[in-house]
Amino acid sequence: MKVSVLTVLHYGLDFLPFALKSVYDFADEIQVVYSPHPSHGHRAGEPCPERGDDLKAAALDVGPKVKWSEVNAFWREGDHRDHALSLCGGDLVLTVDADEVWDPAVLDGALKQAWDGSAEVWRLRFTTPWRSFSFVCKDDMLPERIRDRRPGRGAKYGCVNKDLGPIWHFGYAISTSLLRYKMQCHGHKDEWRANWLEEKWTPWPPVRDVHPTCVGFWNPEPMDPNVLPAIMRAHPFWGVAPVP
After folding, report:
1. How far apart (Å, rounded) are the C-alpha atoms in residues 128 and 199?
2. Is position 206 within any domain?
3. pLDDT by residue (tens digit) across 227-243?
4. Which domain does 95 fall in, by range?
5. What is the pLDDT of residue 75?
């Protein structure tokens, strides 16, 4: 079994090295494809607060399996991901966004289930820490994260056993300044709830119903940070609540 990892990004410096390190030992190659402009269909009204050179240095510092490339032609996320996929040579391709961190036992189980199964695309559960490592939002959404490229797959989609555990999605455990930039170029920018920043993001301790686009969704609940993958204990946000 050869495993390729693909990561497409425009920003994500705070969690990028942790995301890549969390999957490094399972990967034969890690293709990181950077775009200097947003590739979610929206242009931001201000420059990205993170420099490409800093992202590149953080990615390559993870280890020699990481291969860095840059594109400046794709404004759609699907095209960005398809290009990254074309660089991958693995039987299984694992998509890892810059803000996603895996527990090694979960990843090991997910890859084994995909390898022994018959689906082409495998979906997994997300869990989202909220503005810190001490509150969390849970849902049953299942994003696609493993693609089996071997011929003769029997089904289009499969779901990895939820009992294995989640992918930890840190996209809302970021600074307010980065969150403001994220709002400008997010793929669901046009669906963002009015007054969300003031009414849902800013209050601390958290309020309920905090999802940026879906009403009645995401109710932050207290979390023991020690349930996070061990690698996160070295993160500078450990013990910080909320992230400023």
Report:
1. 19
2. no
3. 999 999 999 999 999 99
4. 3-125+143-159
5. 82
